[in-house]
Amino acid sequence: MSALAPTEILALARILPELDYYQLLHLQPGASPADIKTGFHATSRAFHPDGNRHHDDEIGAAIEKIAKRVTEAYSVLRNPRRRQAYDYQRSCGGGVRIRLADAESVGGRQQSEAREGRTPQGRQFFNLAAQDLARKQFAGAVRNLQTALTFEPGNELFKGKLAEARAKLEDARS
Length: 174
Known about the structure:
- The protein is mostly helical.
- The chain is built from nine helices and no strands.
- Helix 1 (6-15) crosses helix 4 and helix 3 (33-46) packs antiparallel against helix 4.
- The longest helix is centred in the middle third of the chain and has 21 residues, at 57-77.
Protein backbone atom coordinates (compact mmCIF):
# COMPACT_ATOMS: atom_id res chain seq x y z
CA MET A 1 0.00 0.00 0.00
CA SER A 2 1.53 3.30 -1.03
CA ALA A 3 1.71 6.31 1.26
CA LEU A 4 -1.46 8.36 1.31
CA ALA A 5 -1.66 12.12 1.06
CA PRO A 6 -2.78 13.94 4.23
CA THR A 7 -6.15 14.78 2.63
CA GLU A 8 -6.69 11.08 1.83
CA ILE A 9 -5.86 10.12 5.42
CA LEU A 10 -8.38 12.64 6.78
CA ALA A 11 -11.02 11.45 4.30
CA LEU A 12 -10.44 7.83 5.33
CA ALA A 13 -10.74 8.77 9.01
CA ARG A 14 -14.08 10.47 8.26
CA ILE A 15 -15.57 7.43 6.48
CA LEU A 16 -14.07 4.92 8.92
CA PRO A 17 -17.43 4.33 10.70
CA GLU A 18 -18.91 3.17 7.37
CA LEU A 19 -16.17 0.67 6.47
CA ASP A 20 -16.47 -2.96 7.45
CA TYR A 21 -13.41 -4.91 8.50
CA TYR A 22 -12.95 -6.46 5.07
CA GLN A 23 -13.03 -3.10 3.32
CA LEU A 24 -10.59 -1.65 5.82
CA LEU A 25 -8.05 -4.42 5.16
CA HIS A 26 -8.76 -4.43 1.39
CA LEU A 27 -10.13 -7.99 1.45
CA GLN A 28 -13.02 -9.96 0.03
CA PRO A 29 -15.38 -11.58 2.59
CA GLY A 30 -14.18 -15.07 1.60
CA ALA A 31 -10.50 -14.21 2.16
CA SER A 32 -8.20 -16.94 3.41
CA PRO A 33 -6.37 -16.64 6.73
CA ALA A 34 -3.14 -15.95 4.81
CA ASP A 35 -4.85 -13.14 2.86
CA ILE A 36 -6.15 -11.66 6.12
CA LYS A 37 -2.66 -11.67 7.60
CA THR A 38 -1.17 -10.12 4.47
CA GLY A 39 -3.90 -7.46 4.33
CA PHE A 40 -3.39 -6.61 7.98
CA HIS A 41 0.37 -6.27 7.67
CA ALA A 42 0.16 -4.08 4.58
CA THR A 43 -2.51 -1.82 6.08
CA SER A 44 -0.94 -1.62 9.53
CA ARG A 45 2.44 -0.63 8.03
CA ALA A 46 0.79 2.19 6.11
CA PHE A 47 -0.99 3.53 9.20
CA HIS A 48 1.42 2.74 12.00
CA PRO A 49 1.83 5.88 14.16
CA ASP A 50 5.60 5.39 14.48
CA GLY A 51 6.02 5.46 10.72
CA ASN A 52 3.92 8.61 10.43
CA ARG A 53 5.49 10.83 13.12
CA HIS A 54 6.27 13.53 10.57
CA HIS A 55 2.59 14.50 10.20
CA ASP A 56 0.94 17.28 12.20
CA ASP A 57 -1.36 16.58 15.18
CA GLU A 58 -4.60 16.41 13.18
CA ILE A 59 -3.19 13.89 10.69
CA GLY A 60 -1.48 11.99 13.52
CA ALA A 61 -4.77 11.65 15.41
CA ALA A 62 -6.50 10.38 12.25
CA ILE A 63 -3.71 7.86 11.66
CA GLU A 64 -3.95 6.62 15.24
CA LYS A 65 -7.72 6.21 14.90
CA ILE A 66 -7.29 4.23 11.67
CA ALA A 67 -4.49 2.10 13.15
CA LYS A 68 -6.70 1.12 16.11
CA ARG A 69 -9.54 0.10 13.79
CA VAL A 70 -7.12 -1.91 11.62
CA THR A 71 -5.97 -3.82 14.71
CA GLU A 72 -9.59 -4.34 15.77
CA ALA A 73 -10.43 -5.71 12.32
CA TYR A 74 -7.52 -8.14 12.43
CA SER A 75 -8.41 -9.29 15.96
CA VAL A 76 -11.87 -10.29 14.73
CA LEU A 77 -11.06 -11.68 11.28
CA ARG A 78 -8.05 -13.80 12.29
CA ASN A 79 -10.10 -15.82 14.80
CA PRO A 80 -12.52 -18.24 13.07
CA ARG A 81 -15.17 -18.02 15.81
CA ARG A 82 -15.07 -14.23 15.95
CA ARG A 83 -15.07 -14.01 12.16
CA GLN A 84 -18.09 -16.30 11.92
CA ALA A 85 -19.95 -14.15 14.46
CA TYR A 86 -18.95 -10.99 12.59
CA ASP A 87 -20.02 -12.39 9.22
CA TYR A 88 -23.34 -13.44 10.72
CA GLN A 89 -23.86 -9.98 12.18
CA ARG A 90 -23.06 -8.36 8.81
CA SER A 91 -25.47 -10.69 6.99
CA CYS A 92 -28.23 -9.61 9.39
CA GLY A 93 -27.49 -5.92 8.85
CA GLY A 94 -26.02 -5.54 12.34
CA GLY A 95 -23.33 -3.02 11.54
CA VAL A 96 -19.72 -2.87 10.48
CA ARG A 97 -18.14 -3.34 13.94
CA ILE A 98 -18.45 -5.97 16.63
CA ARG A 99 -17.14 -5.92 20.17
CA LEU A 100 -14.67 -8.73 20.84
CA ALA A 101 -16.69 -9.92 23.84
CA ASP A 102 -19.81 -10.12 21.66
CA ALA A 103 -17.91 -11.97 18.95
CA GLU A 104 -16.64 -14.49 21.49
CA SER A 105 -20.03 -15.09 23.09
CA VAL A 106 -21.89 -15.40 19.78
CA GLY A 107 -19.20 -17.68 18.39
CA GLY A 108 -19.35 -19.86 21.52
CA ARG A 109 -23.15 -20.00 21.40
CA GLN A 110 -23.07 -21.00 17.71
CA GLN A 111 -20.58 -23.78 18.45
CA SER A 112 -22.72 -24.97 21.35
CA GLU A 113 -25.83 -24.99 19.17
CA ALA A 114 -24.02 -26.97 16.50
CA ARG A 115 -22.79 -29.40 19.14
CA GLU A 116 -26.00 -29.82 21.13
CA GLY A 117 -28.79 -28.52 18.93
CA ARG A 118 -30.58 -25.25 18.26
CA THR A 119 -34.03 -26.09 19.57
CA PRO A 120 -35.02 -27.26 23.05
CA GLN A 121 -36.72 -30.33 21.58
CA GLY A 122 -33.71 -31.16 19.41
CA ARG A 123 -31.41 -30.92 22.43
CA GLN A 124 -33.81 -32.99 24.56
CA PHE A 125 -33.97 -35.90 22.11
CA PHE A 126 -30.25 -35.67 21.32
CA ASN A 127 -29.44 -35.96 25.04
CA LEU A 128 -31.80 -38.93 25.36
CA ALA A 129 -30.03 -40.55 22.42
CA ALA A 130 -26.64 -39.90 24.02
CA GLN A 131 -27.85 -41.65 27.18
CA ASP A 132 -29.14 -44.57 25.09
CA LEU A 133 -25.78 -44.86 23.32
CA ALA A 134 -23.95 -44.86 26.66
CA ARG A 135 -26.21 -47.74 27.83
CA LYS A 136 -25.72 -49.51 24.48
CA GLN A 137 -29.44 -49.25 23.75
CA PHE A 138 -28.95 -48.59 20.06
CA ALA A 139 -32.58 -48.97 18.97
CA GLY A 140 -33.63 -46.27 21.45
CA ALA A 141 -30.76 -44.06 20.30
CA VAL A 142 -31.89 -44.41 16.66
CA ARG A 143 -35.49 -43.47 17.59
CA ASN A 144 -34.40 -40.46 19.66
CA LEU A 145 -32.01 -39.21 16.98
CA GLN A 146 -34.70 -39.55 14.30
CA THR A 147 -37.01 -37.52 16.53
CA ALA A 148 -34.29 -34.92 17.15
CA LEU A 149 -33.84 -34.63 13.38
CA THR A 150 -37.54 -33.86 12.92
CA PHE A 151 -36.92 -30.69 14.95
CA GLU A 152 -33.56 -29.93 13.32
CA PRO A 153 -33.42 -31.57 9.90
CA GLY A 154 -30.20 -29.82 8.89
CA ASN A 155 -28.17 -30.71 11.99
CA GLU A 156 -25.08 -32.54 10.74
CA LEU A 157 -24.08 -33.75 14.20
CA PHE A 158 -27.45 -35.41 14.67
CA LYS A 159 -27.17 -37.04 11.24
CA GLY A 160 -23.69 -38.33 12.02
CA LYS A 161 -24.75 -39.76 15.36
CA LEU A 162 -27.77 -41.39 13.73
CA ALA A 163 -25.54 -43.12 11.19
CA GLU A 164 -23.26 -44.22 14.03
CA ALA A 165 -26.20 -45.55 16.08
CA ARG A 166 -27.62 -47.43 13.07
CA ALA A 167 -24.22 -49.05 12.40
CA LYS A 168 -23.92 -50.15 16.02
CA LEU A 169 -27.49 -51.47 15.95
CA GLU A 170 -26.66 -53.54 12.85
CA ASP A 171 -23.48 -54.83 14.48
CA ALA A 172 -25.42 -55.80 17.62
CA ARG A 173 -28.00 -57.68 15.51
CA SER A 174 -25.33 -59.63 13.58
